[in-house]
Design brief:
This protein is about 45% helix and about 15% strand. It is of the alpha/beta class and about 350 residues long. β7 (about 175), α7 (about 190-195) and β8 (about 205-210) form a beta-alpha-beta unit. It starts with a strand and ends with a helix.
Length: about 350
């Protein structure tokens, strides 16, 4: 299995990206195609001893900066590492693509290069989050800030497929993020989407309030990209802030320092449970290929886990399953109601 990796994407590229990719090649048995300036990538490879037959460099002379306009950069830089990596997927030279670079550029290039899965109006970025019952999939978390009910209906379907196939959750429970759990609560988008979801064979459990999300109220959390991105960033900030508060309080007491020393193994386990690097990257669902988008601050461990996620998506033939299920959904009465 081959995975194309944007070696120049992210705040810590290419050093951390190359390190994570080499680890994936060694421990996951992947063939990794590192896409980026030949000289810069090979300079980083000198710090490792990757299996020669599992790590290759594919030259791309340009890169898209994190603060660049996606469409402008893609147009002015045709030999960029994002487009070049996606072209490897389109041509069959790679089975998946990963980048921790400019998210907007990855999404735009994926649509231009790979296209949408038949039956999907808008691809969505999904994020795997921790909950008291294990893990949940939240989507969309940034690709589509303005949505219609049919878009959220498709998000629910794609999220269910991902939760079942990749996370191994049988009959995943689908929840719709709202300002109240009672039926009829929410804005027009939420109310109409809930009506549509009730007509499908998805395991729809109703509206989910923000305070219920991390308590395991659902396995798939559906919302538009604006709300989803706020939830994602708020959860990330809360986790980081909580640990910072704990550090500050511990410094004020010798007894607290001793207690923390005793609890170190459990605290490390807790940190791993809420650490985004353990979850790797966010899959871009609804495009004709496996694309995983990493956090801009991804380190080597996050890159490794993102490639592990990509490997599992390829094994499960996720784009094909999503297409089959969306076409099945399009044939049901809910699809006709969603298009109005």
């Amino acid at each position: 299995m081959r995975v194309a990796v944007d070696a120049m994407g992210g705040d810590h590229a290419p050093a951390e990206v190359v390190a994570g990719a080499v680890a994936a090649a060694e421990r996951l048995g992947l063939e990794v195609l590192l896409v980026g300036p030949d000289e810069a990538v090979r300079e980083q490879l000198k710090r490792h001893r990757p299996p020669a037959h599992r790590v290759r460099v594919v030259h791309a002379s340009q890169q898209v900066g994190m603060d660049e306009s996606p469409t402008t950069a893609l147009r002015r830089k045709p030999d960029n590492s994002i487009t070049k990596g996606l072209e490897l997927v389109r041509s069959g030279q790679a089975d998946a693509f990963f980048s921790a670079g400019n998210t907007g550029a990855v999404m735009a290039a994926s649509l231009l290069t790979l296209g949408r899965v038949e039956g999907v109006d808008r691809p969505a970025v999904a994020a795997v989050l921790p909950s008291l019952r294990g893990r949940l999939v939240a989507l969309d978390v940034g690709a589509n800030v303005d949505c219609r009910p049919r878009h959220l209906l498709q998000f629910a379907l794609m999220g269910s497929v991902y939760a079942e196939r990749v996370l191994g959750i049988p009959s995943p429970r689908v929840g719709l993020l709202s300002n109240g759990e009672e039926a009829g609560k929410g804005n027009e988008l939420v109310v109409r989407t809930a009506e549509l979801l009730r007509t499908t064979d998805l395991n729809f459990v109703g509206n989910v309030e923000g305070r219920q999300v991390f308590f395991g109220a659902c396995d798939v959390l559906v919302c538009d990209g604006f709300v989803g991105n706020v939830v994602l960033k708020l959860g990330e900030g809360m986790a980081q802030g909580l640990f910072q508060i704990i550090r500050e309080e511990v410094r004020r007491s010798l007894r607290a320092k001793f207690a923390v020393w005793l609890l170190r193994p459990r605290l490390r386990a807790l940190r791993r449970r809420i650490d985004y690097t353990e979850y790797g990257g966010a899959p871009l669902l609804g495009v004709r290929g496996v694309v995983v988008i990493g956090h801009g601050a991804s380190n080597a461990h996050a890159v490794y886990n993102a490639l592990r996620v990509a490997q599992e998506e390829v094994r499960q033939r996720l784009p094909e399953v999503i297409q089959r299920e969306t076409l099945r959904l399009a044939a049901c009465p809910a699809a006709d109601a969603a298009s109005t």
